[in-house]
């Protein structure tokens, strides 16, 4: 399962998302041998979110495409796995250069593939991206310029400011929902 070709998967999945007017945020594979999972995160560019119908539609499109490739003997993933299609969520991963510009002013956690100036992890406020350099200011007010290609993982930190900046698509029916197991 270690040999998943993410470029090939992106080339298969991105057109399916784009055909629905969605932007692909991340394609990841995790869970190892016990629970192999292909995770696809996408969003509507205008809302930065995804509806349940969007998730279901994209899941169907990806499944049909991967099933057809498997039948043709060109399955990009060996063995059985679970497909998970979701929104990036409020404390979303930052995976594209535009994400670092779009979420400037918000707090983020960034891990590098290798140490830079003796550090591998940076927490602070995103300033943005200029060329291929992501700028973050840490809690000590020190500015760090991190090469985009050196970033292993980056995600927003859940803060009151982020919550205020993330408007729900719709709260219609929310007051009618009951928690499972309650009467």
TrEMBL record:
Its main location: cytoplasm. The keyword Cytoplasm applies. It is found in: Cytoplasm. Residues 94-159 form the Ribosome maturation factor RimP C-terminal domain. InterPro entries: Ribosome_maturation_RimP, RimP_C, RimP_C_sf, RimP_N, RimP_N_sf. Belongs to the RimP family. Residues 12-91 form the Ribosome maturation factor RimP N-terminal domain. Keywords: Cytoplasm, Ribosome biogenesis. This is Ribosome maturation factor RimP.
